[in-house]
Specification:
The structure is a single chain. This protein is α+β, with helices and mostly antiparallel strands and about 230 residues long. The protein has a domain of about 140 residues: Sandwich (Immunoglobulin-like). The strands form two sheets. Strands 1, 3, 6, 8, 9, 10, 11 and 12 form an eight-stranded mixed β-sheet that branches. The longest helix is centred in the first third of the chain and has 45 residues. The N and C termini lie far apart (about 100 Å).
């Protein structure tokens, strides 16, 4: 009895495409010259066909050059963007910035702050600070806030230094809920690179620089700020 034939482990399936070397412009030119050398003298290459092959070679060469130039420009633009972000990030060291997210960093000797943005005027806004376990640690209520972004000073709360989260509820004159977005305010402590992008060290964690929403004025400064700072009435 004859044993059936079986394929070896290195056999190539007829349905599996085999990748070969990619031809460049030099290879294309060598093929064209070889074709001219080995053409039949009694039946030379047609002039129109030869012109078409030359035009094709010229097009391939131009496309390769354009691709190389575009790659170089893309690398130059990317390097310029990294340099610009690095310079900007360095200039932000020691400054306070606003980031999206309902987190709160408390530093010793400073009044904790959060930022919110209201979709409509609110009669009352309550900020409830939560611990790492999600349990409430205290709350503070603000009254008569207008539509837009505002920085709220949590000067009624006695919180030890650390990282917290918070929740905000806002209602209008009819006791109906008002749409509110929460932000974190933190101080830039340093600049570094991670994942090919510039990141800032804020509150002991790394944050992409492009996540910054606003650069705010420190509480001890007397200059004006785009966000109004509000204390509880």
């Amino acid at each position: 009895m004859t044993a059936p034939l079986t394929g070896t482990s290195n056999a190539t399936s007829p349905l599996t495409p085999v990748k070969g070397p990619v031809l460049g412009k030099d290879d294309f030119l060598k093929l064209l010259v070889t074709q001219l050398r080995n053409q039949d003298p009694l039946s030379p290459l047609d002039g129109a066909e030869f012109s078409a092959q030359l035009a094709q070679f010229s097009s391939v060469e131009q496309l390769i050059e354009i691709g190389s130039k575009l790659d170089g420009q893309a690398e130059s633009i990317a390097a310029g963007a990294i340099t610009t972000q690095t310079m900007l990030g360095t200039s932000l060291i020691g400054r306070d910035v606003t980031l999206r997210g309902a987190t709160l960093g408390v530093t010793a000797g400073e009044t904790p702050r959060v930022a919110i943005e209201l979709g409509a005027p609110a009669k009352t806004v309550t900020v409830e600070v939560l611990g790492a376990d999600g349990k409430p640690l205290g709350s503070q209520t603000f009254e008569g806030l207008g539509r837009g972004r505002a920085t709220l000073l949590l000067d009624d709360l006695d919180l030890p230094p650390g990282a917290y989260s918070y929740a905000v509820t806002a209602t209008n004159d009819d006791s109906a809920p008002v749409e509110v977005e929460s932000f974190m305010i933190g101080r830039v402590e340093g600049v570094s690179f991670a994942g090919g992008q510039v990141v800032l060290r804020i509150g002991g964690r790394l944050v992409p620089m492009l996540d910054i929403v606003e650069v705010v004025t420190p509480p001890q400064s007397s200059s004006s700020s785009p966000s109004q700072e509000i204390t509880a009435s």
